[in-house]
Specification:
mainly alpha, hpI Integrase, Chain A, 13 helices, 52% helix, globular
Length: 323
């Protein structure tokens, strides 16, 4: 009973300001805040980029504090020790991503004199080859199985079905689903306006009947009556807009409950499934890239590696009498 109270009561008490907990201090917090402000105001980075770099930088600064290291006196061997501490938990691609994010922070820190000027150049991530991996798409049968898990009339299933349909049909990113507002749905004109995170501009889609039905059902019967413009709201009090982390848990928890095995069990798997489905329907890479909101066709080329019918055509090519 106590655990249930903590799970459901703590968010509400925090919302009311009645739950006070001592927050863990972050070493060199002033430099971190200055870096975040610089990314938002000077560089105009998207909230998703700022969040990702904040998480990586915070982890690094906490490690510095716990290991007794001072930012002003860091040396290359200290950076080696950091990656040795956490590197066994990360894949090669994750190590490369963390190296890029940490290098960006240290370049900023060096520019304001907070760390040695040449320190960022000491971070060398692993080489990542273009198109070296395969997209981690679920099969379309698995997508149908996932949607079938939301067939009941429970509020959670009604909400989750709307989320899953947006991810699978339009290939949206989880942040784009979490940020979707009511005024972006044109019910009469059957259009859906999506603010693409990477393109930083709106994109208009036809509002498919099946998607319109599940969205209408959620908004009319399940969505709490709150003043927030966002479509998806927490089911339990406090009734606030859900974050992109909640979108991840909606997908991953259902996939795990169904016993579906995949390299990645999050919303991006549905984005890949959408792309693979469009490729199987013989849409061009340009059309698929436009549908997914890619900034360039290069980002879409990875899906040619799973176009099995086209690969079979290449394999069956008859060279005739050529030696």
């Amino acid at each position: 009973m106590a655990q249930v109270f903590l799970e459901f009561g703590r968010p509400w008490l925090k919302f009311l300001g009645w739950w006070h907990s001592e927050e863990e201090s972050i070493p060199f917090a002033a430099h971190l805040e200055s870096y975040l402000a610089w990314m938002r105001q000077e560089r105009g980075f998207s909230p998703a980029t700022v969040h990702a770099r904040n998480s990586c930088t915070t982890n690094f600064l906490r490690w510095c504090g716990q290991s007794g290291r001072d930012l002003a006196s860091l040396r290359p061997h200290d950076l080696d020790a950091y990656f040795a501490t956490f590197g066994d938990r990360w894949s090669r691609i994750s190590v490369a991503s963390m190296a890029t994010r940490l290098r960006a922070f240290l370049r900023y820190a060096a520019s304001i004199g907070a760390c040695p000027r040449r320190l960022p150049d000491a971070i060398l991530g692993p080489r990542i080859y273009q198109l070296e991996s395969l997209p981690y798409a679920l099969s379309w049968e698995e997508v149908h199985k996932l949607l079938a898990s939301t067939a009941s009339a429970s509020p959670r299933d009604v909400r989750d079905r709307a989320i899953l349909m947006l991810l699978a049909v339009y290939g949206l990113r989880r942040g784009e689903v979490a940020a979707l507002r009511l005024d972006q749905i044109d019910w009469a004109g059957r259009r859906l306006w999506i603010h693409r995170l990477k393109r930083r501009q709106p994109q208009v889609y036809p509002l498919q009947r099946s998607v319109a039905e599940v969205l209408s059902r959620y908004v009319d019967t399940v969505r709490p009556r709150v003043p927030y413009p966002e479509v998806f709201i927490r089911l339990q009090a406090p009734h606030q807009p859900i974050g992109d982390g909640a979108i991840y848990h909606v997908v991953s928890e259902r996939l795990r409950a169904l016993g579906i095995k995949a390299a990645h069990l999050g919303p991006h798997a549905l984005r890949h499934s959408c792309a693979a489905r469009l490729l199987a329907d013989r849409l061009t890479l340009k059309e698929i890239g436009d549908h997914l909101g890619h900034r360039s066709a290069a980002a879409t080329r990875i899906y040619t590696k799973v176009d099995l019918p086209a690969l079979r055509e290449v394999g069956d090519f008859d060279l005739g009498d050529l030696p």
